[in-house]
Automatic annotation (TrEMBL):
Protein name per Swiss-Prot or TrEMBL: DgyrCDS113
Feature: compositional bias, Low complexity: 1-20
Organism (species): Dimorphilus gyrociliatus
Keywords: Calcium, Cytoplasm, Metal-binding, Repeat
Keyword Cytoplasm tagged: yes
Domain EF-hand: 29-64, 96-131
PANTHER family, per database record: GH27120P, PEFLIN
Gene Ontology CC terms, in alphabetical order: cytoplasm
Main location: cytoplasm
Pfam families: EF-hand_6 (PF13405), EF-hand_7 (PF13499)
Single GO MF annotation: calcium-dependent protein binding
PROSITE patterns associated with the record: EF_HAND_1, EF_HAND_2
Origin: domain of life: Eukaryota
């Protein structure tokens, strides 16, 4: 797979106003009621939230529960102990991260439907610095949407994080930044299966 950096197709460092959140922000102690939200969803009072508890705390704005795969992905991103749970500090970071994604998503959901369509998704990736073909955008839509050709907020997060992770993995093998890599089959599979999606 060949990618031309900044030459019409492929990946480059995302630039611009609506960049996807690349890494978790520091916790913001001024977040309103986060402690109350955390305590309300920590059903077993363990001081940690698991994926099921987190799912009950989140809404994608369409009255449809957050995608279970997206929840697991976010838990894994913020689970510093690798226990499958997050504490309050990591919950604060996760909440800020979701809010950043929500602002990004709203910027591309031009009709305020709570979904992005294939054209809006293409515009999002173009704004992020990617140059993907319509065929590839269509593949992303088929892979990550659960809503008749439209992508909800939670699916959008999962899609973008998957593309970011795959881009980072690809770039780590492309030491000369040519937009091309040569890998063996097992290494290719290792690259794919080690990525968070």
């Amino acid at each position: 797979m060949a990618y031309q950096y900044g030459q019409g197709q492929g990946y480059q460092q995302p630039q611009g106003y609506n960049n996807p959140p690349a890494r978790p922000p520091p916790p913001n102690p001024n977040q309103p009621n986060l402690s109350q939200i955390f305590q309300a969803v920590d059903k077993d009072r363990s001081g940690f939230i698991n994926a099921q508890e987190l799912q009950s705390a989140l809404s994608n704005g369409t009255h449809i529960p957050f995608n279970e795969e997206t929840i697991k992905l976010m838990i894994s991103m913020f689970d510093s102990s690798r226990s499958g749970q997050i504490n309050f500090e990591n919950f604060q970071r996760l909440w800020a991260y979701i809010n950043q994604w929500q602002q990004t998503f709203r910027g591309f959901d031009r009709d305020n439907s709570g979904f992005v369509d294939q054209n809006e998704l293409a515009q999002a990736f173009q704004q992020f610095g990617y140059r993907f073909s319509q065929d590839f955008i269509g593949l992303l839509m088929r892979k990550f949407n659960r809503h008749n050709g439209k992508m909800a907020f939670d699916d959008f997060i999962q899609c973008c994080v998957a593309v970011q992770s795959l881009t980072s993995t690809f770039a780590s093998k492309d030491s000369q930044r040519k937009g091309q890599i040569t890998v063996g089959f097992e290494e290719f599979l290792s690259m794919i299966f080690s990525v968070r999606t």
